[in-house]
Amino acid sequence: MTAATALGWVTVCPLDRLDRDRGVAALVAGVQVAIFRTADGLYAIDNLDPVSGAYVLSRGIVGSRGEVPTVASPLHKQVYDLRTGDCLDLPGVSVARHQIRCHNGMVEVRLRQEG
Amino acid sequence: MTGGNVVVIGNGMVGQRFVDALRARDPQGLWRVTVLAEESRPAYDRVRLSAYFDGADEQDLNLHTAHDGVELRLGEPATGVDRDRRVVTTTTGEHPYDVLVFATGSYPFVPPVPGSDLAGVFVYRTLDDLAAIRRYAKDRRTGAVIGGGLLGLEAANALRLLGLTTSVVEFAPRLMPVQVDTAGGAMLRRYVEDLDVACHLGVATTALRSGADGAVAALELADGAVLDADLVVVAAGIRPRDELARAAGLDIGPRGGVLVDAACRSPDERIYAVGECAAVDGTCYGLVAPGYAMAEVVADRLVGGAATFPGADTATKLKLLGVDVASFGDAHGATPGCLDVTWTDPAARVYAKLVLSDDASTLLGGVLVGDAGAYPTLRASVGGPLPAAPLALLAGDDAVGATAGALPATAQVCSCNAVTRGDIDTAIADGCADVAALKACTRAGTSCGSCVPMLKQLLDAAGVVQSKALCEHFDVSRQELFDIVRVRGIRTFSRLIAEHGRGQGCDICKPVVASILASLGNGHILDGEQASLQDTNDHFLANLQRDGSYSVVPRIPGGEITPEKLIVIGEVARDFNLYTKITGGQRIDLFGARVDQLPQIWRRLVDAGFESGHAYGKALRTVKSCVGSTWCRYGVQDSVGLAVALELRYRGLRAPHKIKSAVSGCARECAEARSKDFGVIATETGWNLYVGGNGGFRPRHADLFATDLSTEALVTLIDRFLMYYIRTADRLQRTAAWIEAMDGGLDHLRAVIVDDSLGLCAELDAAMARHVVSYSDEWRDVLSDADRLRRFTSFVNAPEVPDPSITFVTERGQPVPVGGHASEAQGRQPVALGLPEVRR
């Protein structure tokens, strides 16, 4: 589904453009990616909320459940594990996660292949 | 037999309960289940059917849970059962079974009187029946209900709410003859007649007469009376739906119903029956609790268990036309030698009767009318010793609270789900620490809910301190958190959670803390770390819609707006292609804005003199008004002027939940002030203040708090009311629930903010004064600040690309989200077209 070029690292923005504990959306090779910066690091998952079908996960509230870093869908509040994309409230529901890193002060994302 | 095909005929409450129970007991999925449903909608709560007329819809009443390995075939009624081939035929096919469960329920009995088939005659059984009644009631004036039992009185209330002058005709000499005795019936009749529902008791209906249009127009009674009735509801009892079973050659009970044994099994061992269609050892039951018990029995049998139907608890507690009525055990004193203890208070309109054994030591049953507070304890004590002296038991809640802990382990606490005191104690010992956990673990309190107060008492009796913790990150309640923040002067979430909580926070505690900080005046809500605490609505200062776009609501104080400003709203909507709708709060909502458009839209609005309407916040929304004495020939005060002043005073005030208000210029109450958190109604000499009203799923009229106030005194009371609410309410608790939960209720509130019983008033007044002087328009403050503005971007790496997922189609000349209506998208039946809203 994703083009071969999408599988490389794509520079998104400077690290200081990201607020702590708040997401932003980025467009990476046509895919909407939700990017988060927490005290522990950077996370990237699909921006598409699989429950509502709206592209809104980047606008959710970031937090933790136990030791798990989380984001809650702003529409219906289902909570997702930022590390894996798994929904913690609905068994079997998950969103794709993507690779993210900070390189020379710039945030870079690499889409993860399907499956 | 442990596995195969189960076919369930019927998807009513009991049929659904059977499926839930079987799935819970058969985690490996050895049984594949096919459910054949006659109705086009899945199982719904027929006990609460009348809530439809209070605004509840199909969704609210829905009971259906989807399970793996269960196929629900809606709108496919069974038409025959071939026991030799073991197949059920339906309107569209055949379904083979290894086990067949009849859950066909019952049908309403319509007495064979002439005219019972006329147009305008209805029964009261399904959502479709109620929808048809509501449609037909439009433009009719009179209604009658045949049958004064439980369902008949519910139907009478529905007709009354639909605006019909209503009568009830009951063949027995009293209302609810099955549940209450003569004296209880008399008390109930007084309540019912006070609601202008005429009662004709002890008389049969002999015919229904048609009018000129051929539809029903009147009822003829056996005593010669003729009652006008443009709409008639027949609620004269139910009969088991056993026609399929009869045709299949199964045995039928003496009064109908599929004859089954205590295992709910017919002589054909592959066939079971549950609920109202079953005649267990010959007896049919018309209540849901025995049906649930049968469903559990059959589910247990299918996985190899040996459960038997325990006999029925026919105890009933309900609120009919606002009156509490309860009946339990041997309510009519049928036990030989039994003694009655009765209590009648005509002034308080309370009637109670306890039926005791001949030595007065054992409670056998009872009837309560007007106040059923003692019901949970009494019902649980049936068959055992009295937990207290009879009159103490009848005296009210306090006595009950003291005695719940004294119940024996065998006492049934929840009769809907057959949960005993012993079961509850075991669950508590296993770690259930609050009512929610007890509900999940034992199912107690999940059906009618009347035992919930007892669950709390049993937790108390077991010494469990019920958690007030906000969430996993804070062990304290919102009120305690508010005090911590206020007293210690904490200004950041990170300090608060480091010193008084744990973890990183969540979507529960972060917005609570954001709201507390905002209530205490902590600068702009998007400044610094505060921004990360805000819910998306507050974060973008707009209301998130289901497609990811936002709506915009400029403030229109009191609903008063100049033509120039109206034109600006129209121009902005046109230029940004926004859908516009007038809200219930007398303002205009603009839908379909993308995040990147919000600052451009607001630039135009702010330049034209608009400011944020805080529709996105847990904050003051609107102060609605009627036109008042300025124009109205009935108005006695300037309601618009006061509404504008109040809205400007409290705009931007953040609170535990949204706050709505209204001002009416005379007692006709056109602004609907009594449905608001605080409502003001003009009198000849001043203003009356009402508090604690709301609309929503459980509408509640506000209570009169103070009368004939000067404007200055009124404002002072509202200041204190709001500030005390903000300080002490729970998260997402509207003022109505806040007052109800308060020890001492309205009287306590009056003592605090009128008589200053806690010495808080000066502090509350000062807090509101600070709010008023520090108010600043949030949107104007965003537009002047580049750092705040940068949040309003579509994509951090492509701000010039609008979100491609937000697209519109045109409906009735306006843009709406692609993807159709939510109900269709989820594969449900389309909802009925908007009918006139019914109001009390």
UniProtKB/TrEMBL annotation, chain A:
One MF annotation (Gene Ontology) recorded for this entry: 2 iron, 2 sulfur cluster binding
Keyword vocabulary terms for this entry: 2Fe-2S, Iron, Iron-sulfur, Metal-binding, Nitrate assimilation, Oxidoreductase
PROSITE patterns (UniProt xref): NIRD (PS51300), RIESKE (PS51296)
Signal peptide extent: none
Highest taxon listed in the record's lineage: Bacteria
InterPro entries noted in UniProt: NirD, Rieske-like_NirD, Rieske_2Fe-2S, Rieske_2Fe-2S_sf
Residue ranges annotated for the Rieske domain, each copy included: 10-109
One GO biological process term: nitrate assimilation
The name this protein goes by in its record: Nitrite reductase small subunit NirD
Native organism: Verrucosispora sioxanthis
From TrEMBL, chain B:
Domain NADH-rubredoxin oxidoreductase C-terminal: 315-380
Annotated ranges, domain FAD/NAD(P)-binding: 5-278
Residue segments, region Disordered: 817-840
Required co-factors: [2Fe-2S] cluster; FAD; siroheme; [4Fe-4S] cluster
Documented EC number(s): 1.8.7.1
UniProt KW Flavoprotein keyword: yes
Residue stretches making up the BFD-like [2Fe-2S]-binding domain: 413-460
Family: Belongs to the nitrite and sulfite reductase 4Fe-4S domain family.
Protein name as annotated: assimilatory sulfite reductase (ferredoxin)
Organism (species): Verrucosispora sioxanthis
Primary gene name: nirB
